Amino acid sequence: MPSVLANLAYLVSAVLFVFAFKGLAHPRTAVRGNLLGATGMAIAVVVTLLDSRIVSFETILAGIVVGSTISAILALKAPMTAMPQLVATLNGLGGGASLLVAGSALVETMVATSGIATVASGIIGAVTFWGSLVAFAKLQGLITEKPILFKGRHVVNLLLILVAVSLGAWLVVEPSITSTYWIIAAVSSILGVLLVTPIGGADMPVVISLLNSYSGLAATATGFVLNNNVLVISGSLVGASGIILTNLMCKAMNRSFTNVLFGGFGATLQEAAGAGDIYAGRVKSTSPEEVAMLFDGARRVVIVPGYGMAVAGAQHAVRDLANLIESRGVELEFAIHPVAGRMPGHMNVLLAEAGIPYEKLKEMDQVNPDLEQTDVALVVGANDVVNPLARTDPKSPIAGMPIIDVDKAKTVVVIKRSLSPGFAGIPNPLFAADNTLMLFGDARKMILELISALKEM
Q1: How far is 235 from 114, CA to CA, in rounded Å?
Q2: For residue 126, what pLDDT is reported?
Q3: Among this protein's residues, is 384 annotated catalytic?
Q4: pTM, whole model, 2 decimals?
Q5: How far apart are CA 93 and CA 138, in angstroms?
Q6: 2.60.40.1120, 3.30.70.120, 3.40.50.1220, 3.40.50.300: which CATH number matches 275-455?
């Protein structure tokens, strides 16, 4: 295929990618955005396959079959609760692919034409791959979600960066010594692990966003290595959007961008108050019948979804409850925290899946001013995003993080299996507040019982 036609097709793909990102900016257009992005990628893949530089179509076909099979199984098997882990895995695979492709191109050519880009692919790709594996392990509970800190870690990280960059400079000068590239990859792999392990579970949504950006930057560098325009453009879009999202997430959690970027820079392990000191017999349990009575006399209700709702698969039951409450003339809204769940937009996706109108989903800043006039705030499986310790305890891992101020509502009902802590691993004084009632049990089961009790009134 003539390069002019190939580049024209790549331009069409790039335009589709831009419109895809625009569509993904709002839930109403997200499906269309996904389709546009998939179409753009399909065009880019087909054009690349038809390019005369492709050597073995058999190998490519085998890769497509194997990759499609694995991805289809993952997509069908992974529950919504494991979506953050899946995203972390995909970020890592993207970085790993960039690392291997750039290395293969170096071994094949052994020239310094794109030496700096090759080095960038190796460093960023390795950091992304291993950093994503650590993030996956924290999200999956395979390793502790608490920050893993050791003295001198920043000095070690700085030395690893200097070693990787120095080796990269040597590779640019002597590209024929290809083993240097794999040493760079090994050093960067250690760096990737050390950058993510000091970051606590409460900050994992920000880490996933940052690693997503890294995967895009690695793809961009590999695009320069291969002289592939569409890879440069698509990687740049992913890298830039990831950085923007990471910055927004840091603001939403009152976290320093440098803290996340440089692996928990300035982070320390602090001992917060124990659960026994906070709860100390002050927790009041309730029943679905009592909560139904609260809803029967309410004029305004706010529902706050959390990870527990996702685990129980209760989003459809929550929708039915919301419809029933509204049918009684009650004003109802959903309060969505930017980092509720385990990744950005986790709750929005679940509620949209259940068919809840987008206009009912309100951001934290929109809901907080009206919570003092709210009769009942129903918290379904949320924990850290409604924890008052963020406002009151400077030693807390979530200190300074903006939260949904449900404790200011007249009555708070929390549906939770137990008093176990959230992902940040700390107790929640909200559960023992004077205006809080705890409805212990599986979220879906409790919501269904609440619906039944409300219908009988």
Answers
A1: 17
A2: 95
A3: yes
A4: 0.76
A5: 17
A6: 3.40.50.1220
